[in-house]
Amino acid sequence: MSHEFELMHAYADGEVSASEAAEAKRLLETDAQCRAEYEWALSMKAALADGCKPVANEEGWKSCVGRLDELDRVKRAEGFVGKYAWALCGALMLMIVAGGFANRMVNSRMVTSTQIASVLDPIGSGVAVSRNPDISAARQLNLQGFKMTSSLGGRLDNREFVRFGLRDQNGLGGLSVVVVAGADRVEGVDNPTQNPGIRKGQMNGVNCVTWNLGNNTCILFGERTPEELVALAEQMAR
Amino acid sequence: MLFSRANSLRDRFQRQAEDAYPSIFGTALRLTRDREEAEDLAQEAIVRAYEAFDRFDGQNFKAWILRILTNLYINKYRRKKRTGLVVSLDDDENSYEPTGPAEYSPDRLVFDEMLGAEVEEALSQVPDVFKIAVILSDLQGLSYDEIALATDVPVGTVRSRIARGRAILRRELERFALQEGYIKQESEK
Predict the structure, then answer these.
(1) What ipTM describes this predicted complex?
(2) Dihedral, CA of residue B24, residue B27, residue B28 and residue B34, to nearest 10
(3) Which of A1, A16, A35, A52 to mutate to test the interface with B (most CBs of B within 10 A)?
């Protein structure tokens, strides 16, 4: 009977084909059980329609609208990023290149500690050297009263340099002065001294001071106190 | 230009969704039986519908969004609340008992006296698969074809579920009617 009963419900819902409608009508006239089922179907439909109303929920709807707004904002942001991604990437690249260029400009006149190490041991580091150095900067140094024990020159990453081994007026050795052309400071030698033009520091555990001479920078190393080195530097810069 | 097109899409969606919202929320509430869960379910259905609105065929918005809601409920909430659906599926869906005995026809006045809350309570006792079909048909006015699409079953199964769902609903309503004294036991007649 289940087919007939289901047919009665479908007929009550108006969900039957023409042939099924004819069959339903015949059953309604001839079968009491089917007729009762049809009545029950209508009755249940009516009870549901009367008893279960649509449910208003203003707050629920407002929060839905809020979610839709949020979705729109995200879509707009994604759309903007998608549309201008090439421009954003370009700007980022430009910033990286500009940053690198600026960094290079700022640091281009700095002598690094590695370069100084190469100057102090030019043979081991493979720096091109000359035993007869000739740079104008070296001539600006006032080496009166010092005795030159050695001299060495060459090129350090396209910058000329000269290094002299010296003894002071008292005949004490262990002094080296390096002049690097086209440089204006030395990495890691940045502590102030009583002379504002002279900075002090240490390299490879040896005290040193640095000062600028024209377009060049000079570094004086020695087994001396920083104050003694500053005094010697002042003498050389005179 | 792009924004104005997007805005008009949003406007069109919001207008239709607002009209359908009482049905959407009502269906969600009757399925979940929990106001907070119903709000979440309704909201999720609306968000999904909005995201897919450009694929809506423009025919019957309410049927379309109720289909989304039903699918969400079946897939998501069923996992959380396995009880109703699993039991009803195990309980042979095709076996059928008539809604009412042949010897008497329903007295519609009895059901007219019932309050909405009692009908709602009776409906909540109907297992999920039947309840979904009955709600979509009798409360939301979807056709059998639309219900078949929404629940992903053949039309014949929809027909069977509706008939079965109403039969269970009737039993529940009669139980209430007995409790409240609207009707008397057969033996008392």
Answers:
(1) 0.79
(2) 130
(3) A52
